[in-house]
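In line with agreed milestones, the collection of sequences with tokenised folds has grown. A representative record is reproduced below.
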Amino acid sequence: MDPLIRDISDTARWVAVYRARESEREDAVFRDPFARALAGERGERIALSVKFTEANAWSFIARTYLFDRFVTRLVAHGADMVVNLAAGLDTRPYRMELPASLRWVEVDLPDILDYKEEILADAKPVCDLERVRLDLSNEDGRRGLFADLGRRAKHVVVIAEGLVIYLMRDAVAALARDLAGPPSFQHWVLDLASPGLLQMMKQSAGSAMNDAGAPFLFAPPEGPPFFTAHGWQPAEVRSLLKTAAKLGRLPLAMRMFAMLPESNGAQGSRPWSAVCLLQKT
């Protein structure tokens, strides 16, 4: 029998489950009408099988919400292109209020983009959508892509939701430097975990992810300042815990932890995660 999580692309089906569940609430903080179909039966089975993420589904809701907010704000302030790395089953070009003139570029492996195109065949994006089938570990390929996209826009926002945790430290540094190359690449939005949270995730779901060839790897001890040496300066850091508390999605037993002072630097063994807005140095 196939393992439940066959490869890293199956994590996109998994995360889509939480978007679907949130969308079906009367008080949803975002609506993704495509998430349920994209998640499919496999996505639901994966979600139910990993008890740690079931207990911490609030983190996915907060993450999606924060990415939405950053994209909305940056586009309102003049971004003319969004480049979504490891786009997976993201549907922002279909579900968000975006200007028709905005160019949105999704980059991911062929199989997951083919699957998404099949499911969304009858849906119409609200902006100019382009899909690029590329393995981001191909350094020459991604540098060529970034250079080309950089020439086609004046203000590019890069988003990378659920990506860097699967990369080695040196690979994240190399990606950061490549993204810093084109002058028009001005902002980068990503999510980041602490070493303490990474260890918890490895203990709870690490074996399944290892078997799928997608182990949890990156959680820099220095936190968001890791990127400063590679061309990017943290501009804003938004805690998933505090955001979930504000949205009313944090379990009662955890709300006291949301009252602790925010920390945007080194996190150590603290189980911490955030969405970070980086700007070019």
In short: The first helix runs from residue 10 to 23. The CA atoms of residues 75 and 98 lie 8 Å apart.
